[in-house]
Amino acid sequence: MIPLQHFLFISAALFSLGLFAIITRKNAIQILMGIELMINASILNIVAFGKYDKIDNTGQVFGLFIIVLAAAAVAVALVIIMNLYKRVKTIDPNQTNLLKG
Amino acid sequence: MQNITQSTNDILNSIPQLKAESTIVIGFLLVIVVDLFLKKSEKLVFAIAILSLLISGTFLVLKMQNMGESQILFNAMFAISKAGNLFKLLVLLASILSLLFFSQDERLKNHPKGINDFYSIFLGGVLGMFLLISSANLLMVFLSIEMISLASYLMVNYNAYQNKQAEAGMKYVLFGAVASAIMLYGISLIYGFTGTINLYGNEMVNGLNQIGAAGTTLAIVLFMVGIGFKLSFVPFHFWTPDAYQEAPTSVTSFLTTAPKIAVFGFLFLILPTFQGLNNSVFNQLILMVAAASMILGNTIAIFQDNPKRMMAYSSIGHTGFILMLFLLPQMMILNALLFYLAIYLLMNVGTLMSFAHLENKFRATLISDYKGLGKFVQSISIALVILMVSLIGLPPTAGFIAKFLVFSSLINLASADIWIAVLLIIAAITTVISLFYYLKIPLYLFIKKSEIEFKEKPTSNFLIVLTGLIALAIIVFGLFPSLISF
């Protein structure tokens, strides 16, 4: 059986990679990918912890809920990014800088 | 462990307790169905939405009258308590005022598909707030926070057909998604450390106490990122000015009030869990965040020319002010918290309504456009002056009583702890600073003269009446604060 630590290391690495992507990428879609990485890191964490839960399946059920919710959030985000692309013809958050102050 | 009969019975017994929430669900479904099958149904949909809110409020009041202790329902997923119901009633008040405001908003009405879809999104958001206040479980917390977030992303982006509006919408959604992902990681850590997702009860506190200071700090800080995004306190406030400035004014008034009340209510209800920890990270976090929010919100607001952007920074400042209360134990803060939130809600909705009216009538979108408008629209200008005085917190308005309650509940703690004394001094100084930007609006309205001619557009007087009523309420509650007693 794979020990718990391995899961935690992988998930911490995924989380950090996601955060890195969010900070460095210049494209809203790539930022969304980073967010997905972070969410998947949390799901991995929760499911791995769930294996050791005394009440069965809390972690697994939690994971299922989050997968559905992440899909919904990405759908909304993609619509909004599409709307921006139709107006401004760019999805680089650094170039859309009309709002300041 | 429970057997199946027990859990089924629990669920069956719990369903009747959820009348207020079910009413909103029914309203939500009716709005969608009516919108699909009937043409020209704006009035009907509006009536359904407002009726479902009112009926749900009636259920809440009825429930409160015969409720003793708090109850845990649905196998520890859901908790109802008297304080929770009071917060729900405040959310409902904010939602009803915002709903009246939505129906007057030209930008929302000009959407090619009409305003009906918007009402369904709005009801979904209100349901999310109800679930958040009642959630007894980290899964429910995450689901309901996401529910509120998705609704607010869509509301900010409704009819966002200018570049700036689309840009603000995208920033809001990306920032929100990042915040909720970080919060989820915090939740996963709390679950791993404690082995439970129940917020109430000793299990979580004991588990967190056993894990050691570093682990608790990490988990709580990550968890508070998501809360901080919804409350827009300082390190997570970047989206607030952009989103509030570019959202339709009615949506701004909804976002500054209802979700914040819901999150404050949730934070209030789980306060014993956080304060039961040996590690004082929660208190330190609140202390720093409250000070930073008050300083930053109130100073940057001085330099704003867009009234909605100014209100965004002012709401950051108010959030910091309210957060100070969370340094105290739970049973000491309920009255001050509810009073402040109720008055804050009235002030914010009233102010944004008068901004919307000035915008509709004179196309005045900047504070510098308000020059000399005072003598053309006297009623709304006088109401604005009252609201501004109340936002500063000067007598005889209710804003003064609200700030006074917060100060007086904290003053005993301040003599014991030097940092809390510093925090109170910061609060007093930032209140003085806030004079400069709130009074800018009366200054432009009444004292500065304008050279240009105003082109008036015919508008309905509905917003004037509502603003007048709100200003009156502010004065009345300022003179007789005992009228609101919980």
From TrEMBL, chain A:
Keywords: Cell membrane, Membrane, NAD, Quinone, Translocase, Transmembrane, Transmembrane helix, Transport. The keyword DNA repair does not apply. It is an enzyme of class 7 (translocase). It comes from the Bacteria. It is found in: Cell membrane; Membrane. Gene3D superfamilies: 1.10.287.3510. It catalyses: a quinone + NADH + 5 H(+)(in) = a quinol + NAD(+) + 4 H(+)(out). One of its GO terms (molecular function) is NADH dehydrogenase (quinone) (non-electrogenic) activity. GO terms for biological process: ATP synthesis coupled electron transport. The chain crosses the membrane at residues 6-24, 31-49, 61-85. InterPro entries: NADH_UbQ_OxRdtase_chain4L/K, NUOK/Mnh_C1-like. GO terms for cellular component: NADH dehydrogenase complex; plasma membrane. Its EC number is 7.1.1.-. Belongs to the complex I subunit 4L family. NCBIfam families: PRK05715.1-2. NDH-1 shuttles electrons from NADH, via FMN and iron-sulfur (Fe-S) centers, to quinones in the respiratory chain. The immediate electron acceptor for the enzyme in this species is believed to be a menaquinone. Couples the redox reaction to proton translocation (for every two electrons transferred, four hydrogen ions are translocated across the cytoplasmic membrane), and thus conserves the redox energy in a proton gradient. NDH-1 is composed of 14 different subunits. Subunits NuoA, H, J, K, L, M, N constitute the membrane sector of the complex. This is NADH-quinone oxidoreductase subunit K. It comes from Pedobacter psychrophilus. The lineage of its organism: Bacteria, Pseudomonadati, Bacteroidota, Sphingobacteriia, Sphingobacteriales.
Automatic annotation (TrEMBL), chain B:
GO terms for biological process: ATP synthesis coupled electron transport. Its EC number is 7.1.1.-. GO terms for molecular function: NADH dehydrogenase (quinone) (non-electrogenic) activity; NADH dehydrogenase (ubiquinone) activity; quinone binding. It is found in: Cell membrane; Endomembrane system; Membrane. Residues 135-422 form the NADH:quinone oxidoreductase/Mrp antiporter transmembrane domain. Keywords: Cell membrane, Membrane, NAD, Quinone, Translocase, Transmembrane, Transmembrane helix, Transport. It is a multi-pass membrane protein. One of its GO terms (cellular component) is plasma membrane. The chain crosses the membrane at residues 20-38, 45-65, 85-102, 114-133, 172-191, 211-233, 254-275, 281-303, 310-331, 337-358, 379-406, 418-439, 460-484. It comes from the Bacteria. It catalyses: a quinone + NADH + 5 H(+)(in) = a quinol + NAD(+) + 4 H(+)(out). Its main location: membrane. NCBIfam families: NDH_I_N. PANTHER family: NADH DEHYDROGENASE. Belongs to the complex I subunit 2 family. NDH-1 shuttles electrons from NADH, via FMN and iron-sulfur (Fe-S) centers, to quinones in the respiratory chain. The immediate electron acceptor for the enzyme in this species is believed to be a menaquinone. Couples the redox reaction to proton translocation (for every two electrons transferred, four hydrogen ions are translocated across the cytoplasmic membrane), and thus conserves the redox energy in a proton gradient. NDH-1 is composed of 14 different subunits. Subunits NuoA, H, J, K, L, M, N constitute the membrane sector of the complex. This is NADH-quinone oxidoreductase subunit N. It comes from Pedobacter psychrophilus.
